[in-house]
Amino acid sequence: MSRTVRVIWDDALTSYNFGPSHPLAPIRVELTMALARELGVLDKVEPAGCVPATDDELAMVHDRGYIEAVRRCSATGAPDLSAGLGTADNPSFAGVHEASALIAGASLAAARAVWEGTAEHAVNVAGGLHHAMASTASGFCVYNDPALAIAWLLRQGAGRVAYVDVDVHHGDGVQALFYDDPRVLTISLHESPRTLFPGTGFPEETGAGGTAVNVALPAGTGDSGWLRAFHAVVPPLLREFAPEILVTQHGCDSHALDPLANLMLSVDGQRAAYAALHRLAHETAGGRWIVTGGGGYELVQVVPRAWTHLIAEVAGHPLDPATPTSEGWRRLVRERTGETPPLTMTDGRTPEFRDLSGGYDPGDPIDRAIMATRNAVFPLHGLDPIP
């Protein structure tokens, strides 16, 4: 399905490091790239490096005073609570600006490759820092690289960009930055803000004429319910919006083992979502697809397998779920973490779901969440909310 696929990587991307006790540990992307390399996934793509985003580039979405504050923190490691740095979620550290700007630059490199046509798809698994706001760090995120990629595309002349966020947390920063911009459709599927950070992402948040779309799923939602919700909302809206380019954020913290959230997906269910988004990129956006990572805090069992599947799917060479992890990678896991590595690329699930063609059940909390979103936004796009 895919033609040229570019994976943006530099070992320095692991310098985005809030310290040894912080959940967002850079080992997760290190182990992802190692597993993808061991399984031959990286042989199917074009590797490419990146450079840090400049201050002028960052200023497409961030206030210049905020960028200056991050630079000051970066020089000394001292906190600046007015900028959101120095909190438990976002500790300040020496070099924070440089590390954050490099991740932003990696997503810009992905956007440039796809927009200019040197790649059909491009991936930055270190990116997806979707909580950062215009003037403050938030939720482990300093610079909002998906928003920066979108802003850059708009400056190049893109008239319609769609953003789909499957992280367990609401993509609040990206939504906020484009809330009143009809050129950008943001769709976020996440655990209900009633039970999870950041407390936003209700269906009633609809943006400019329905261009902010939020599917707030109840805690405990697993593969079948999540996929039912995805297919009830995302494909119809993307088909109607007809984006010129699709940007997706793939936080894998929706997994049942993730320590920070309460959804119950498997790696197999997440893999099904990646495949669905790949098909939609070709169907609705002419194949132009920019992909980022995101959250994910089960560092050994989940993130490396999920994102290796993601890269393989983007490359057009999806892995058989029964594929064993390599012995070399297992050894690396034991050496670097002391944990027991997973033996295969599957959780042993076969994700299945019922679509809405058979109707919906008002007594089912997942169906209620689906219909709340469809009722809020489908009429604004000329779509019938009733299946």
UniProtKB/TrEMBL annotation:
Family: Belongs to the histone deacetylase family.
Domain of life per record: Bacteria
Histone deacetylase domain residues: 22-313
Gene3D superfamilies per UniProt: Histone deacetylase domain (3.40.800.20)
SUPFAM superfamilies in the cross-refs: Arginase/deacetylase
UniProt keyword Cell membrane present: no
Pathway(s) of this molecule: Ketone degradation; acetoin degradation
Pfam families documented for this protein: Hist_deacetyl (PF00850)
GO function terms (MF aspect): histone deacetylase activity
Keywords of this entry: Acetoin catabolism
Record bears the keyword Protein biosynthesis: no
Protein name (database record): Acetoin utilization protein AcuC
An annotated GO BP: epigenetic regulation of gene expression
UniProt-listed InterPro entries: AcuC, HDACs, His_deacetylse_dom, His_deacetylse_dom_sf, Ureohydrolase_dom_sf
